[in-house]
Each structure stands twice: as C-alpha cells, then as structure tokens.
Specification:
The chain has about 450 residues and is an alpha+beta fold. It is about 30% helix and about 30% strand.
C-alpha cells in the first residue's frame, strides 16, 4: 500500500515538473516550454496585474463604496487546464472574480444606505399650545438581493459602477392619529381668593411643579413625589390649612386645592384613582365628596393611567383660578361627576366673653360622590365614595352681666318724692334691669 502511495506522489510531482509543449498560449500569454507550475504562476501574475487596474464602485445616496484588488479576488481552473494541454495552441483559463467577504460587505453597505421611517410624533410643551406636531418621513431600505445580483454581473463584465436601488418603508401612523392620541380628555377648574397672597403663591407654585408631567400606559403619578415637600426652603409660605378638624396656620396652605383640582380632572378624563384622602372639614371650592387632601408623606393623591397610550398634564395656577387639563387617547366615554348630600351634622355652639374670639360655625356634611359614564346614549352611575365632614364649632359672643347689687338703692324705704326728679331718672336708667327696682316700680307706678 505504501509503495503505491509513494508512486502516486512521484507521478504527480513528475507531471507538474513536466514542461508544456512549445507554442502554448494561455489567455494570450506565451507559456510554451515552461514547466507547469511556472506557467500557472505566470498566467496568475498577469491576471492579478490586470485585476489591479480594475475598480468596482457601488454608488448610493449616502456615499460611494470602491473596491480593488485584493478586496476583489478571483478563482481559476489553471491547474486542470495546464494538466490537460497536450499540444501547442491558444487556451483560455476560466477566471471568476468575487468580492471578499461579499455577504458581510454588501450587508454593511445596505445598512449604511438604509434610512428608517421617521414616525409622526408630538412634542409636549409646558406653555402655549400643548403640543408641537411633526409629520415624520417615509424611510428606505437598500434592495440587497438586487445589489448582490448587480455586483456579480459587474464582476463578470467590465466592473464599472453599480447603483444601489431602494425599497420604500412607509410610516406606520399619520399625524392625524398622533393628534387623536393627544386630544383633550378632561379638564377642571377651581377658584381662589387672589388677594390672599400667601395661599395664592402656594397654589401657583404647586401648579408649576405639577405642570408638564406625563404618564406612560400603566404608570402611577404620585402628587407628593411630583410636587415635593411643602417647605419654606422650597418657596412655600404659611397659610391656612385644615388640621384635626380645625383651621390653623401651616406652611403650604392651599396646595390641597391643586390636588383636589387634579383629582376631579383625572376622574373626568377616565383615569383611575389609586389613593385619595378627604379633608376632615368640607371645603368651599368643590362640592362635598369631590376633594382630595394631601399632607406630608402620609396622605397622597395617586393617579394611574389605564389607557394604552401616554397621558399629559397641564396645570395653571394664577389670576384666582387653578386649572388642570389632561390629554391623551379618548376611549369614547364622556365622564361627569355628581355630589349628593345625605345629611348634616349640627355644629356645636359655645359662648365667649371676648368679641375677637367669636366666629361663625358650620354644620358638618354627610355626602356621597358619583362618577357618571356615558357612551352611545347609555349612562352608568358609579358610586365613588362616602364622606362625613366634621362640623365647625360656632362661638357666640356673650357680654358679661354688670353686677349692680352693691349700688342698689333700697327703694322699699325710699319714695320718689324724697329724691329730686333728676336723680330719680338717673337711677331709673341705671337700675332699670334690677329685679328689686322692677318690683318697687310695679308696686308704686299706679
């Protein structure tokens, strides 16, 4: 077996050490009389010389891509051709040119030339018009199969220039659809006394901090996290707040009016209330069972976006009003709110001797709040909450009764004719309320 293999190797080497017959020309090059290996090397050197003078250019909208040897290589059949030549004459070797790393190279070009479609979009603004709309643009992708065919055809011919062709990639949505996703879902406005400067300042500041926020689908907004702590260091001022059923002074008074306005706007927009807290006393800027108190970190207002699209909040506080507007994709339902008073809690009353301590009271309220949803003529009334607001104690000024017992004239022993008329009337005016005088007067007036 081993001798046979060795014999084959010797035969193969001898075959390639053989010389070509005289007068052999391959691809126009005279290689007659050359050993096979030298003839093959000479022909390939000429192929590479000619290849070095060629250039393949791929032209696209984003640039030009040029390739030369050795980025362009070749394969031939010279080994088989030379081994079968028996006599002189002209022979042609089959040469095929190819782009090195062709798949990856052409994919890179296609990626460089492709432009994705720019979808229409809306930019949410914190002031002025709520949205700025952009129409977007269709994109393009290089036609890769055609590019490969054109490159192969060029390499078989005179190389030259290959132009990239494109396939249009259309936008998936329109500006009209974007506008429908950013329509006004609901709004609510409450009013306040603009002359109460500290409270008005707190309302404006809270509205500014809330303004411009957005909520992705399924996200929950925390009022306390968005507005932040109500402290003097952050610009909040002392104003009246409700604490433990009493009106008292506290930093950030008035912020609850902003949270209450947001609460109503959210319900009217079809959003979900994840957390709310009523005031201990009924407030004057919304009907009962429609308020939402916030306090420190313990009492928060949290709102969840149940829609498949983002929602956007605009808050404005100034000129005696705070207004919340919410934008997003409508579900086609119209929402309204109702408040129903079920009863009252009488205000307790007490007397005071200091006129400055007197104050009007207010009866407490028992109430319910409802959300009404309407679509296609069908209405559904849903109970949201039941509340009991405490009464405000009424304090009535009662002047102290003057003690006249020390200066009473003993009218039982004194008759009017014993007193001068002037003194009599003075005494009459001064002591008219005295029971002792009334008894005397009644007995002697006849």
């Amino acid at each position: 077996m081993v001798p046979a293999v060795l014999a084959g190797i010797v035969f193969f080497m001898c075959a390639f050490s053989r010389s070509l017959p005289a007068g052999v020309r391959i691809n126009g090059l005279n290689v007659g009389g050359m050993p096979h290996d030298r003839a093959i090397a000479a022909v390939r050197a000429e192929i590479e010389r000619e290849l070095g003078q060629k250039k393949l250019t791929v032209t696209g909208k984003n640039g030009e891509y040029s390739f030369t040897y050795p980025e362009i290589s070749y394969k031939d059949d010279l080994n088989a051709l030379v081994g079968n030549i028996k006599k002189g004459g002209d022979y042609s070797a089959r040469v095929e040119y190819y782009l090195c790393g062709g798949e990856e190279t052409l994919s890179y070009i296609a990626l460089s030339e492709s432009v994705p479609a720019e979808e229409p979009r809306a930019e949410f603004l914190a002031s002025g018009e709520p949205f700025l709309y952009f129409g977007g643009a269709d994109g393009r992708e290089a036609d890769v199969p055609r590019l490969k065919r054109d490159v192969q055809a060029a390499l078989k011919g005179d190389f030259g220039e290959v132009e990239i062709h494109y396939i249009k990639t259309a936008r998936k949505s329109s500006v009209q659809e974007i506008k429908e996703r950013t329509s006004l879902l609901g709004e609510f406005t409450t009013y306040f006394d603009n002359s109460n400067l500290s409270r008005a300042s707190n309302i404006r500041l809270a509205a500014e901090l809330l303004n411009g926020c957005s909520m992705e689908s399924g996200a929950t907004l925390s009022f306390n996290e968005r507005v932040g702590p109500r402290t003097a260091e952050r610009g909040f001022l002392p104003a009246k707040i409700i604490e433990n059923g009493e009106y008292t002074e506290g930093v950030g008074g008035g912020v609850c009016q902003v949270s209450t306005t947001l609460y109503n706007a959210a319900l009217l927009s079809g959003l979900k209330i994840a957390e709310y807290h009523p005031h201990s006393l009924a407030v004057g800027y919304v009907p009962p069972s429609r308020d939402a108190m916030v306090s420190g970190s313990a009492c928060d207002l949290k709102i969840t976006n149940p829609t498949p699209y983002p929602v956007y909040l605009r808050a404005e506080g100034g000129e005696g009003r705070v207004r919340l507007r919410i934008y997003g994709k409508s579900d086609g339902v119209r929402y309204s709110l109702e408040s129903e008073v079920l009863g009252s809690v009488p205000a307790p009353e007490e007397e005071c001797s200091d006129p400055s301590s007197a104050r009007d009271g207010k009866d407490g309220v028992i109430s319910e709040g409802y959300l009404v949803a309407e679509r296609g003529g069908y209405k559904k009334r849903m109970k949201l909450r039941t509340d009991k607001y405490l009464p405000v104690k009424r304090v009535v000024y009662s002047p102290p009764q003057e003690d006249t017992t020390q200066n009473i004239v003993d009218f039982e022993k004194t008759t009017p004719d014993k007193l001068c008329l002037e003194n009599f009337y003075v005494i009459l005016e001064k002591y008219f309320r005295n029971d002792k005088w009334r008894k005397f007067y009644d007995q002697n007036s006849a």
